[in-house]
Specification:
about 210 residues, mainly alpha, 10 helices
């Protein structure tokens, strides 16, 4: 049975559960990844071509994504390292988990020709880049800011500094190394080093150092 045959059946009969839906979505995203691996530019990835490659109808794609931009953001999200599982034991540990995900993403972007190429093309497409910022980057930033606010409320951080500024201070060094300095090392333990160094200066003066 071909991929097209295997995905056509759900179109003829009512969907009966989540696993079937996930299989269709996986086939569609795999189709996009396959086209990218073949060197097809983003500009040439039409919904019609993606549907033909995945063996589904265009309507199947539009039922799940509003357009190519939203679909492509989901493809990139699945290609990246998964979002961090926050320990929840302390602000410090949650920050380390956040930065570690960024570090692993940077390592993957350097070692994966596909991911490197995808990000380069994304930045040349304002609509796709804006969708990625809104659906991936912004939720991550809100989570980071919330962790810092919790740290202020728990007395782990100074309250006289803006949380947005502190977020930039924590995330900035890792982004600098992963994005602006492709020659810089990204060793294990870097996340802990960044967080612990910054916390030395951002803890309330009366708080004992860890």
């Amino acid at each position: 049975m071909s991929l097209a045959d295997s995905q056509a059946a759900p179109e003829r009969t009512p969907a009966r559960g989540r696993p079937r839906s996930e299989a269709v979505e996986r086939a569609i995203m795999d189709g996009v990844i396959g086209l990218l691996e073949e060197g097809v530019p983003l500009a040439d990835l039409s919904i019609e071509r993606i549907a033909r490659t995945a063996g589904v109808g265009k309507a199947t794609i539009y039922r799940r994504w509003s357009g190519k931009e939203e679909l492509f953001v989901d493809v990139v999200r699945t290609a990246e390292p998964p979002g961090p599982e926050l320990p929840g034991t302390s602000m410090r540990d949650d920050l380390v988990a956040i930065l570690e995900q960024l570090r692993r993403r940077g390592v993957m972007a350097r070692t994966s020709a596909l991911l490197h190429n995808v990000f380069a093309q994304m930045k040349s497409s304002p609509k796709i880049w804006a969708a990625y910022q809104a659906n991936v980057v912004e939720p991550r930033r809100r989570l980071q800011v919330e962790i810092l606010r919790r740290g202020q409320a728990d007395g782990e951080l100074r309250t006289d500094l803006d949380v947005e500024l502190m977020n930039d201070m924590f995330v900035g060094p890792m982004l600098l190394r992963t994005v602006m300095r492709p020659d810089a090392d990204l060793p294990e333990g870097l996340s802990e080093q960044i967080v612990d160094t910054l916390l030395e200066g951002l803890r309330p003066v009366s708080s004992p150092t860890a």
